[in-house]
Specification:
alpha/beta; Rossmann fold; 7 helices
Length: 191
C-alpha cells in the first residue's frame, strides 16, 4: 500500500481568526481551536497511521495531542509554517498598503522565506513520504499545507495560492491507480 498523507491543519488560534500571518510566533489554540482538534479524534482514530509527524509549533503539536495522536508524534522541522519575516503578525491588508500587488506565493516575505524555499521544504518532505507505505498523519499549518498540496501534484509554487485550508481541516494526498507516478489531491479541506 502506497503512502497516503493525511494533512491536518492546526485548530483556530487568535491570529488565524484575525488573519494575522503566524509563522514563527508560537501561540496557543483558542478554546474553539481546542474543541476543533478534539473533534478530529473520532475520524482519525479509525486509521492505523504508520507515522505521525508534527510541526514543532505549539498550535500544531497541541492539535495532534487533542486529536489523539500525540503519543505517536515525531517532530518534523520541514512542517513548520512559512517564515513571514517582516510580515509576521500582519494581515494581508496591512502588507498591501505597503505593496499593493503583493502575493505570498509569488513574492514571499522580506527577511523571511521565498516561495522557492518553502517549496524546497515541501519537496524534501514529499520525497521522504513517497518512500513510505501506509497512511501518514501530518499536523501543520495553512500556507505550508497549501504549498505541500501544490507540490504533491507537481504544480509550480505559485499555484499553492489556489488551495485554501481552513483551521482543523483534513486533506488527503494520495495516488490514482496505486501508482507513485500519479499523485492526486484525493480530498481537500474537509472540516
Amino acid at each position: 500500500m502506497l503512502a497516503e498523507a493525511y494533512y491536518i491543519r492546526h485548530g483556530e488560534t487568535a491570529w488565524s481568526l484575525s488573519g494575522r500571518h503566524t509563522g514563527t510566533t508560537d501561540i496557543p489554540l483558542t478554546a474553539r481551536g481546542a474543541a476543533e482538534a478534539r473533534a478530529l479524534a473520532p475520524r482519525l482514530s479509525a486509521i492505523a497511521f504508520v507515522r505521525v509527524l508534527t510541526s514543532p509549533r505549539e498550535r500544531a503539536r497541541r492539535t495532534c495531542e487533542l486529536a489523539g495522536l500525540g503519543a505517536q508524534a515525531v517532530i518534523e522541522p520541514d512542517l513548520v509554517e512559512w517564515n513571514y519575516g517582516a510580515y509576521e503578525g500582519l494581515v494581508s491588508a496591512e502588507i498591501r498598503r505597503q505593496r499593493p500587488d503583493w502575493n505570498l506565493f509569488r513574492d514571499g516575505c522580506p527577511g523571511g522565506e521565498s516561495p522557492q524555499e518553502v517549496a524546497a521544504r515541501a519537496d524534501r518532505l514529499i520525497a521522504r513520504l513517497r518512500q513510505l507505505d501506509g497512511p501518514v498523519a501530518l499536523f501543520s499549518h495553512g500556507h505550508f499545507g497549501r504549498m505541500l498540496g501544490a507540490r504533491w501534484v507537481g504544480f509550480e509554487p505559485a499555484q499553492g495560492q489556489r488551495l485554501l485550508l481552513d483551521p482543523a481541516s483534513v486533506s488527503i494526498l494520495g495516488y490514482e491507480h496505486e501508482s507513485r507516478d500519479e499523485p492526486v489531491l484525493a480530498k481537500w479541506n474537509l472540516t
